[in-house]
Every structure is written in structure tokens, then in C-alpha cells.
Design goal:
This protein is of the alpha+beta class. It has 14 helices and 18 strands. A hairpin with a 2-residue loop joins strand 14 and strand 15. Helix 8 packs antiparallel against helix 9 and helix 13 crosses helix 14. The longest helix is centred in the middle third of the chain and has 24 residues. It is globular and about 70 Å long.
């Protein structure tokens, strides 16, 4: 996602925990922006096109072939070994060892490995934040909640308004809905920016919920600003858009819920819907009579960054896929495992790793994020609208410097099913357990560990599950990985 727009505090996070390739990436970005080759700082707020250029140059330097504009069509599993990958462009790849670096877990799914999408119930693993719940109280401290009363029903037909997807929810129950995605677009107020295009499809009535939200906010005596509608984190030459407010740039519905298990043609269609929603949302605000002239002028001054994603209309090539499939490996990382590793005094619950092997408990890096799930849907609660699905818990711990160890079991599919596949994003975790893991620097740390584990398996002609844990930690240490709090690097200054 660094080349698809992200530059917020999930990237700047805890830089002293970034070792190995992650630290090197941010150093290379700084050098690309003119800093000395001996620079000890890193750039954590680069324009995404700069990050992409650095990635591509690095891959070329390592003589790694990248195939773009294609996707996985089929994977062959023989005797617990992934033996062949067939791509949508017709290419066929004989596989020795495979790393599934997709957000969606496509390779694991293609070989029939068990996976989960959505939310487990509270009862499934004894997690206090599991299952459905409204964005209020201890779950979210009000984040992404409706602070004003908004009627979710059409006044003429009593039907739910567009983008309100359900009448109430069952607290703590399982749900196939997942937290919403949105574009991390680059907006700029510079004259050389590209004017926002009009949406291909636009229906004013689609935005009744947004209009009512604006009216109710004004009636409550609250001031309107750009932050009433979306976030925008500073980056070089512009800002990175994100959701956050109750009615924002994140469509909550099929575009997100079906994305993880969709084929590539459907994902192309869903991206088109994300484009239309994003542009439609901004177009509606730009043409609304409900906003004051000063705010409309400020909004109208924002353009798309001209040097980003030039081949796809200056919008990201994918939405921010916050969560895809999660494999069900031999051990699941749960909310309670994060509690234990972060020292968070939530009510005790069963640990997924309590009975895990020493191998599965081997530390492969450090994470720093907290339990952070975005809203999955807007629901009617009586005659009021409320968002559901979000969790915000433990940010104060992160701000205080708390880190948590990342266990090797996260990356490993079931040993009885496949031995030559490692996971980077679609980790073996519950929905809640996944939340402190789902940020890009942590994926980079995990990705290097997966690569190191696969390299050791390749050298010894063994399965992933048979590599010696001491050899893995030794290799990671030699490559500069941070494996304990005692080994933290000095804080790296941001030199963007």
C-alpha cells in the first residue's frame, strides 16, 4: 500500500522496531529524495510514485522479474506441495517454494486451504471484541460513530436509505461483513494538480444519508470542515485521503465484503465502483447547497496529484484492502494473544498460543499497532443511524511505546496440508487478532521473515515447518531484524 497511497501514522509508527529490509526501504526512499547515501534518517511520508520507483529499482537491482497486469488463475497441490501456478495471462510457473504475498490470500485459497473472512463470534475464541457491535463505548470510544441523530429511513417509503445496509445487529454474533475499504488517494492544492473528474454514474438521491448527516451536524451547532468528511495525512506535495467520520469516502457494502473472495474480473469491477463512489462523494460535496461558500472553495481547491498513478486516472490501482482472507493454520492468533504480548489488562481469555509449540512461538519480529478495525456497515437502530464493526482499542499503549512480539505460527499454513507455502498478509489469526498486525511496516517485517524461512527450507530441501527455529532467528538477526525489545534500534528521524 505504500505505492498505493498510505503515509499516515501506521507507517511512521515505531521506527525503532523496523529492521532489515523495512529499514532499508525507508532509507532508500530518503536517498531517492536527495539525502546522502550515508543518511541515517528515513522517509516515511513520500509521494507514492517515489516509493514505487524505489521498489522497482530495487527489484531490478536484485534481478527479480515482476509480472504485472495478471493474476492467479489456478494453483496445483500435489502431495502437500504447491507444484504449479497458472496465471491469467496464460503463463505457467513451476513452483519449488511459494510465498503468498497477496492481501487476499489467493494462493492458499486456490489450493483449498481453510480460511476465514469476516468476524468470528465472541463465543468462538473468548474474545471480548469479537463479533458484531456498534461503534460506541469501549469498542471504539466514539470513533466513526454518529455523534448526531440521523434518520436512516426514506420518509416516503420507510425503506432504508442508500448505504444503510441493515436494521440493527446481534451483538457479539459472527458476521460475513468486513471492515470497509477506501482509496488512499493523493490530493493537492497545487495548480499543477489534475481537476477531479466527474463520476461516471451519479444520482443525487444516493447521497441522502450524507445530506442528513450535514444538516444534523449543523443543527447540533457543530462546525463543518474538511475533517468532517474525510482525513488527509500530509505527504510530499499533497495529502493522503482516509476515512474516519461517520459518513465518509469508504463505501460499506459489497465492494468491500466480496473483495477478498472475488476473482480478478470482479475486483476490477469493484475498483470501478470505488472510483465512482469516491468521485461521487466529492462531487456531491462540491455541488451541495448545504456547505458554506468558504468550505466549498477550500474543497474545490483540491485536485488529484498529477504525478501519481498516471496510467489509471491518477487514482490508486487498488483500494486500501484492510483485511482479506485469513488462513486457519495450526494455531490462531487471537485478541487474547495480543493482550498477553502487549501487556494489555483486558479480561483474561484463552490464548491461541497457550498450547502452541516452541517453533510456532518463535519470535520473527516486533509489531506496534493496536486493535484497529474500521466500520463495516451503517445500520438502523430504531430511528437513528449508527455504524457497526469498528474497534479502536489500545492506541494509548502504542503511543506509550508498547510493542508486541510476532510469532512464527502466523505465517504457516497447516502442516498436514501444505509444506512449501508461507503467508505474508493473509495470516493465521482471528478477525480481532489480525487488527494489530495489519499495517505495512509489520507486513514488511513478516515478509522478510517468510523469505528467510523459505530460503532455509530451500537450502535443506525441507518443508517450512521443519526448518530449525535457531537457524531462522540467527539468519534474521544477521540481516538486521529486530527480534526483542532489548535489540531496538535508535528512533529513526523522518527526513521527508
Amino acid at each position: 500500500m505504500l505505492s498505493a497511497g498510505m503515509v499516515d501514522d501506521s507507517i511512521r509508527g515505531r521506527t525503532e522496531a523496523y529492521g532489515g529490509l523495512a529499514a532499508e526501504l525507508f532509507r532508500r526512499i530518503a536517498i531517492a529524495l536527495g539525502h546522502s547515501a550515508n543518511a541515517t534518517c528515513g522517509c516515511f511520508q513520500a509521494n507514492p510514485n517515489t516509493t514505487e520507483e524505489v521498489f522497482l529499482a530495487w527489484l531490478d537491482e536484485e534481478d527479480i522479474t515482476v509480472m504485472t497486469n495478471t493474476s492467479l488463475a489456478e494453483a496445483t497441490l500435489t502431495n502437500k506441495t504447491v507444484t504449479k501456478l497458472r496465471l491469467s495471462n496464460g503463463a505457467s510457473i513451476d513452483a519449488g517454494y511459494v510465498i503468498d504475498g497477496t492481501y487476499e490470500g489467493d494462493v492458499a485459497a486456490a489450493i483449498g486451504h481453510p480460511f476465514s473472512v469476516g468476524m468470528e463470534s465472541q463465543a468462538s475464541h473468548g474474545e471480548t471484541f469479537a463479533g458484531q457491535g456498534l461503534c460506541e463505548g469501549n469498542r471504539s470510544t466514539g470513533w466513526q460513530s454518529f455523534a448526531v441523530d440521523v434518520n436512516p429511513f426514506d420518509t416516503k417509503s420507510d425503506a432504508l436509505l442508500p448505504h444503510v445496509t441493515a436494521s440493527n445487529i446481534t451483538y457479539g454474533s459472527a458476521s460475513a461483513t468486513i471492515q470497509s475499504f477506501n482509496f488512499r488517494a493523493c490530493l493537492t492544492t497545487q495548480e499543477r494538480g489534475v481537476p477531479l473528474p466527474s463520476p461516471t454514474l451519479y444520482n443525487e438521491s444516493e447521497w441522502q444519508l450524507l445530506d442528513r448527516y450535514i444538516v444534523a451536524t449543523k443543527q447540533a451547532g457543530k462546525s463543518l470542515s474538511l475533517s468532517t468528511f474525510f482525513g488527509c495525512s500530509s505527504l510530499a506535495g499533497g495529502c493522503d485521503t482516509n476515512d474516519g467520520p461517520a459518513v465518509s469516502i469508504n463505501p460499506m457494502g459489497a465492494e468491500t465484503w466480496n473483495w477478498p473472495t472475488a476473482n480478478q474480473s470482479l475486483r476490477v469491477e469493484y475498483r470501478r465502483r470505488f472510483v465512482n463512489y469516491f468521485l461521487g462523494y466529492l462531487h456531491h460535496l462540491n455541488t451541495s447547497d448545504l456547505l458554506g461558500s468558504a468550505l466549498k472553495k477550500e474543497l474545490a481547491s483540491h485536485r488529484l496529484c498529477s504525478n501519481t498513478w498516471t496510467d489509471v486516472g491518477h487514482l490508486p490501482f487498488i483500494p486500501y484492502v484492510r483485511e482479506g482472507r485469513r488462513i486457519r493454520g495450526d494455531v490462531l492468533y487471537t485478541q487474547n494473544d495480543w493482550n498477553h504480548r502487549a501487556g494489555e489488562p483486558l479480561p483474561a481469555g484463552p490464548l491461541g498460543y497457550a498450547n502452541a509449540s516452541t517453533w510456532q512461538n518463535t519470535t520473527i519480529g516486533l509489531g506496534f499497532w493496536f486493535i484497529d478495525a474500521h466500520a463495516s456497515q451503517a445500520v438502523a437502530v430504531g430511528n437513528k443511524t449508527q455504524n457497526a464493526g469498528c474497534i479502536q482499542y489500545g492506541r494509548s499503549l502504542m503511543d506509550a511505546g508498547v510493542l508486541h512480539t510476532l510469532p512464527l505460527g502466523l505465517i504457516a499454513p497447516q502442516a498436514a496440508l501444505v509444506g512449501n507455502l508461507g503467508m505474508v498478509n493473509a495470516l493465521s489469526a482471528t478477525h480481532v487478532g489480525y487488527q494489530p498486525l495489519r499495517v505495512e511496516p509489520t507486513f514488511m517485517v513478516i515478509g522478510e521473515a517468510v523469505g528467510a524461512a523459505i530460503a532455509l527450507a530451500l537450502q535443506s530441501h525441507s518443508t517450512l515447518h521443519d526448518i530449525p527455529r535457531e537457524a531462522l532467528t540467527g539468519l534474521l538477526h544477521d540481516r538486521g531484524a529486530v527480534l526483542s525489545r532489548a535489540a531496538l534500534r535508535p528512533q529513526v528521524n523522518n527526513c521527508c
